[in-house]
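Appendix B, record 7
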Amino acid sequence: MLRLNEDEKVVLVIHKHWFIIARQVLVIIILIMLAPVALTFLPLITGGLDPTLVETSTNFFLSIYVMVLLLLLFLLWMDHYLDMWIITTERIVDVEQRGLFSREISEIPLSSVQDITIEIRGLIETFLKFGKLRIQTAGEREFTIKDAPALYEAKDIILKYARGRRQEQGSQI
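C-alpha cells (predicted):
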C-alpha cells in the first residue's frame, strides 16, 4: 500500500481514538439488544395468527436483522482500523477508507509543513485527550487529522522531522 523511498522510515502511525468506534459500537449493541425486548411483545401483536408461521417468520427476520447489524459492526471496525495517518521521515500520508472497496490516499511532504494547530473541543475530548490536528502547508492546502489521540506527541514529531527536512533541503541547494 505505502511504498517508502530510499532511507525513508515510518516514524508514527495514528489511528482514530478508540472512543470514536466505541460510541458507534455501543449504538449497534443497543440495537441488537432491542430484538429480545421486541420478542416479548410479539404475542400481543400477533394475536390469533398461526404460532408456527409467527415463529418461523420471526426467526427469519430476526436472523436477517442481527446479520445486518453484525455486518454494519464489521464495516465500522474496518473503517476505523484502515483509516490512518502515517508519518514518515519525509511525508505525512492520510489513508481514508471510504467504504468496502474504496479508499482515498493523500500525502504532503514534511518540508512544506508551515504550522500545526491542535483543536480539542468539549468535555470528552479534553478528558480522553483527543481532537483535531490541523497542518497548514506552504501552499494554501490544509491537512486535518480528525479524532487523533496523542495530539501533542504527534505535533512534536511532525515539527521535528519537518524542521529536519527543511534543513536537509536548504543544505542541498
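Remarks on this record: The first helix runs from residue 18 to 40. The chain has one domain: 10-173.
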